[in-house]
Design a protein that fits this description.
Layout (H helix, E strand, L loop, with lengths): L1 H26 L1 H4 L31 H37 L1 H16 L2 H12 L3 H10 L3 H14 L3 H8 L4 H37 L11 H8 L8 H31 L1
Amino acid sequence: MSGVHRTGRVTALVAAAGLGLLILLALLAPYVAPYGVDVIDLAQRRAAPSARHWFGTDELGRDLLTRVLFGARVSLAIGLVSAALSAAIGVTVGALAGYVGGASDAMLMRGTDAMLSVPRLPLLMIAAAVLAPGVPLLIVLVGAAGWMETARVVRAEVQSVKTRDFVVAARALGGSAPRVVLRHVLPGVLPTAAVSLTLAVGRGILLESALSFFGVGVQPPAASWGNMLYQAQTTMSSEPWLALVPGAFIFLTVLCCNMLGDAQFRSRALAS
């Protein structure tokens, strides 16, 4: 057991370090990027990776490394903030359904099941095509489409925690329902919600990338990893680096998020 626990801790540290490095590079993009995000050099259009342009250039001669770093600011912001929004909605719905029970539980869970039955990506594509959202509204759309899994997990955890002796004692001592939930139930649920949060970050980045790839997400001239893939789809055979570089950053980010979530889940399982 100790070996498994040690491996989980190492995995979590590696994943957290990788994700932290990506976030740090995104925050420092204006200072570490070798060129301005929209600096055009027509003489270097679609240049292959070289010492001058480590990741090559795009169809306008813009440095790909620079655009990946600035695109990280948008893609990671959408992933992180939409995950926080979906976690807030999911925890609220799940805690209310699990603690109150009865008709409220049935109504909230049937609504959750109905949302889960709707294909997420086509729904978001329709909403994005109609609303033509900027980044803030895109965050809301992605967050509003990703809370259902968290709600179901939190509901099950709340149903377990609310029957424990310390919660029963708090109710017997006259604690109001909001106080009992906030002070005694939710602290026991938050580690489980944290696992869902890490997985939701990766899901949010993938959804933004998919929406931008289909042309209904982040719109140029703003750079995101998804719309960089969208702009590269016609040149994948002749200039593969235009797609491989943002695709690799998406892969690494989602991998770090999933590794972190998996490590947290294993730690929870061993602790229980």
